[in-house]
Amino acid sequence: MSKKLMAMLAVVVLGAGFVYKTVLAAPTEAGAEPKLQGVVYVLPKEFLVNLSDGRYAKFSVAVVLPETPEAHGEETPPEGYGPLAEEAVIRTVVVDVVGASTGDALTTAKGRSAVRRRILRRIERETDAEAKDVLFPDITVQ
Predict the structure, then answer these.
(1) Which pTM does this prediction carry?
(2) I want to staple 103 with a disulfide (CB 3.0 to 4.6 A). Which of 8, 31, 95, 141 is the partner?
Protein backbone atom coordinates (compact mmCIF):
# COMPACT_ATOMS: atom_id res chain seq x y z
CA MET A 1 0.00 0.00 0.00
CA SER A 2 2.79 2.46 0.82
CA LYS A 3 4.42 1.90 -2.61
CA LYS A 4 1.13 2.81 -4.30
CA LEU A 5 0.86 5.90 -2.11
CA MET A 6 4.43 6.95 -2.95
CA ALA A 7 3.78 6.41 -6.67
CA MET A 8 0.57 8.46 -6.53
CA LEU A 9 2.36 11.21 -4.61
CA ALA A 10 5.14 11.31 -7.22
CA VAL A 11 2.55 11.55 -10.03
CA VAL A 12 0.77 14.40 -8.22
CA VAL A 13 4.03 16.30 -7.62
CA LEU A 14 5.14 15.85 -11.25
CA GLY A 15 1.70 16.89 -12.49
CA ALA A 16 1.72 19.98 -10.29
CA GLY A 17 5.18 20.89 -11.58
CA PHE A 18 4.03 20.45 -15.18
CA VAL A 19 0.93 22.62 -14.62
CA TYR A 20 3.01 25.34 -12.95
CA LYS A 21 5.62 25.34 -15.70
CA THR A 22 3.14 25.42 -18.59
CA VAL A 23 0.27 27.50 -17.19
CA LEU A 24 1.21 29.52 -14.11
CA ALA A 25 4.86 30.47 -14.63
CA ALA A 26 5.62 33.60 -16.63
CA PRO A 27 6.66 32.68 -20.14
CA THR A 28 10.30 33.25 -20.97
CA GLU A 29 11.36 33.80 -24.52
CA ALA A 30 14.62 32.28 -25.56
CA GLY A 31 16.76 34.94 -27.17
CA ALA A 32 14.50 37.82 -26.09
CA GLU A 33 16.02 41.24 -26.67
CA PRO A 34 17.30 42.89 -23.50
CA LYS A 35 15.54 46.14 -22.65
CA LEU A 36 18.82 47.98 -22.31
CA GLN A 37 21.25 47.81 -25.21
CA GLY A 38 24.68 48.51 -23.74
CA VAL A 39 26.00 49.45 -20.32
CA VAL A 40 25.14 52.36 -18.07
CA TYR A 41 28.20 54.45 -17.21
CA VAL A 42 27.52 56.87 -14.34
CA LEU A 43 29.79 59.89 -14.44
CA PRO A 44 31.49 59.81 -11.02
CA LYS A 45 31.19 63.50 -10.08
CA GLU A 46 27.83 65.13 -9.39
CA PHE A 47 26.88 68.34 -11.16
CA LEU A 48 25.88 71.61 -9.53
CA VAL A 49 24.76 74.04 -12.25
CA ASN A 50 23.28 77.54 -12.25
CA LEU A 51 20.21 77.59 -14.48
CA SER A 52 19.17 80.35 -16.88
CA ASP A 53 16.33 81.47 -14.60
CA GLY A 54 18.53 82.06 -11.54
CA ARG A 55 17.77 78.70 -9.94
CA TYR A 56 20.25 75.85 -9.67
CA ALA A 57 20.23 72.10 -10.16
CA LYS A 58 22.22 69.37 -8.46
CA PHE A 59 22.16 66.10 -10.34
CA SER A 60 24.06 63.09 -11.56
CA VAL A 61 24.37 61.92 -15.15
CA ALA A 62 24.69 58.47 -16.68
CA VAL A 63 25.43 57.65 -20.30
CA VAL A 64 24.38 54.42 -22.02
CA LEU A 65 27.39 53.13 -23.95
CA PRO A 66 27.85 50.03 -26.12
CA GLU A 67 30.52 48.67 -23.75
CA THR A 68 32.19 49.47 -20.44
CA PRO A 69 34.84 52.17 -20.91
CA GLU A 70 38.42 51.16 -20.16
CA ALA A 71 41.28 53.35 -19.01
CA HIS A 72 43.43 54.58 -21.87
CA GLY A 73 47.14 54.19 -21.31
CA GLU A 74 48.77 54.30 -17.92
CA GLU A 75 47.69 57.85 -17.13
CA THR A 76 45.39 58.04 -14.11
CA PRO A 77 42.35 60.27 -14.62
CA PRO A 78 41.96 63.25 -12.29
CA GLU A 79 40.21 62.66 -8.99
CA GLY A 80 36.47 62.33 -9.47
CA TYR A 81 36.76 61.31 -13.13
CA GLY A 82 36.42 57.81 -14.52
CA PRO A 83 37.98 55.89 -17.40
CA LEU A 84 35.79 57.40 -20.14
CA ALA A 85 38.25 59.11 -22.50
CA GLU A 86 35.96 62.00 -23.42
CA GLU A 87 34.40 62.49 -20.00
CA ALA A 88 35.56 66.11 -19.70
CA VAL A 89 33.94 66.99 -23.04
CA ILE A 90 30.72 65.22 -22.04
CA ARG A 91 30.69 67.09 -18.72
CA THR A 92 31.12 70.38 -20.61
CA VAL A 93 28.21 69.55 -22.91
CA VAL A 94 26.01 68.66 -19.92
CA VAL A 95 26.86 71.92 -18.11
CA ASP A 96 26.23 73.99 -21.26
CA VAL A 97 22.87 72.40 -22.07
CA VAL A 98 21.54 72.20 -18.51
CA GLY A 99 22.81 75.71 -17.71
CA ALA A 100 20.80 77.07 -20.65
CA SER A 101 17.66 75.36 -19.31
CA THR A 102 15.17 76.59 -16.74
CA GLY A 103 14.16 75.02 -13.47
CA ASP A 104 10.66 74.52 -14.85
CA ALA A 105 12.05 72.47 -17.75
CA LEU A 106 13.98 70.22 -15.37
CA THR A 107 11.08 69.59 -12.99
CA THR A 108 8.85 67.88 -15.57
CA ALA A 109 9.42 64.54 -17.28
CA LYS A 110 8.78 66.09 -20.69
CA GLY A 111 11.26 68.91 -20.04
CA ARG A 112 13.97 66.54 -18.75
CA SER A 113 13.46 64.34 -21.79
CA ALA A 114 14.01 67.33 -24.10
CA VAL A 115 17.16 68.32 -22.20
CA ARG A 116 18.46 64.73 -22.38
CA ARG A 117 17.87 64.68 -26.17
CA ARG A 118 19.76 67.97 -26.60
CA ILE A 119 22.67 66.61 -24.55
CA LEU A 120 22.72 63.40 -26.60
CA ARG A 121 22.73 65.30 -29.92
CA ARG A 122 25.64 67.45 -28.76
CA ILE A 123 27.59 64.43 -27.52
CA GLU A 124 27.09 62.77 -30.91
CA ARG A 125 28.16 65.96 -32.70
CA GLU A 126 31.13 66.95 -30.53
CA THR A 127 32.67 63.65 -29.38
CA ASP A 128 33.57 60.21 -30.64
CA ALA A 129 31.74 58.58 -27.73
CA GLU A 130 29.05 56.19 -28.94
CA ALA A 131 26.41 57.30 -26.46
CA LYS A 132 22.99 55.74 -26.99
CA ASP A 133 21.16 57.63 -24.25
CA VAL A 134 21.67 60.11 -21.44
CA LEU A 135 20.03 59.58 -18.06
CA PHE A 136 19.49 61.69 -14.95
CA PRO A 137 19.47 59.08 -12.12
CA ASP A 138 18.71 61.84 -9.63
CA ILE A 139 18.07 65.56 -9.88
CA THR A 140 17.21 68.36 -7.47
CA VAL A 141 16.20 71.85 -8.59
CA GLN A 142 16.13 74.79 -6.19
Answers:
(1) 0.72
(2) 141
